Amino acid sequence: MSRFSEFGNQLYSGEKSIDFVGRRKIFYIIALVMLVLSVVLPLSRGGFNFGIEFRGGSEYRISDSKEKSTIAAEEAVHTVVPNIQVNTTEIGGDTIRVQTPQLSDEESEKVRLALAKRFDVPDSNVASSFIGPNWGADITSKALFGLVIFIALAAVLMALYFRTLKMSIAAILALFHDLVITAGLYGALGFEVTPAAVIGFLTILGYSLYDTVVVFDKIRENTLETEFSETSTFGERVNLAINQTLVRSINTSVVAVLPVAAILFIGAFVLGAGTLRDISLALFIGIIVGTYSTIFIAAPFYSQLREGEAKFAKQADKVLAKRS
Q: Over the Cα atoms of the chain, what is R_g?
């Protein structure tokens, strides 16, 4: 730990430096590959696995059953409605959730009774419910509306706070990167997209934005009146700021990821709580991706946007000429 602290001090003082800005093209290529895979892989699997809340359908919950076989649940449903798609999940230690496409009232009741018979429980231990596709469409539209409003407000506030639109553009690019990759991993691995997962997606955008603001604040401090400097260019000042905040970003991410990982483990493997699993899974992926995008995408891209400005280009020429 002391070595890591010493390394952080060396990065802060400039004694050691990682060239994030100079190697930005490599990081851009990596990000582009990840974005392409985040789109292609879910499509190759047939799209996203949306939960019943989005697609609509029938749901059954079998409680207090000694048998926990999900295969048995599928077989029981197929005795009533053959060849229908069935999704089964064990929730906690005593409940099995069974989801199917929309069934008629008669079919739904027959399936409920078939499940009760197959798992040898009273009829009252099998609860059935129905979620219409209109409700799912309403949830989707509200989630997208919330996302658009969040991004718009974030862009305006960052432009006002930093007094430059280019920082806002770089930050929003990083947010887009985080959202697409997190959603892409969900689709590629076949995880179910539920309202809880959508809440997780929106939450990681806030975390990513917070981390970006911290790094950008240091960049603003380091690049103040850079055009009058005779020792370093704008890109070098930005790179120093990234190095100075690198250890802090890593520490913040680790501190955030550890409890989320604990919640993910407890929710997925101990309690079997779907909501905890969905939210924590989105947070776990998003925090890691968000830290990467701040350091490797947002800050170098902002540097690229500003380096071409006349005052910084002219100043960089003078500095480089003086060195040669």
A: 26
**In the chain, % of residues over pLDDT 70:** 92
Report pLDDT digits (tens) over 143-194.
788 788 888 888 898 888 888 899 999 999 998 898 899 888 888 887 778 7
Strands 57-63 and 126-131, by their bridges, are antiparallel
Side by side, which strands form the sheet with 87-91?
87-91, 95-100, 57-63, 126-131
Q: How far is 69 from 88, CA to CA, in rounded Å?
A: 9
Separation CA 262–CA 257 (nearest Å)? 9
State the pTM of this model: 0.79
The pairing of strands 57-63 and 95-100 is antiparallel
- Euclidean distance between CA atoms 295 and 13, whole angstroms: 18
Tell me: the pLDDT tens digits for 292-303?
A: 898 999 999 999
CA–CA distances in Å: residue 252 to residues 27, 166, 229, 305, 316: 22, 25, 32, 27, 33
d(CA 258, CA 133): 37
- The whole-angstrom separation of Cα 316 and Cα 253 is 34
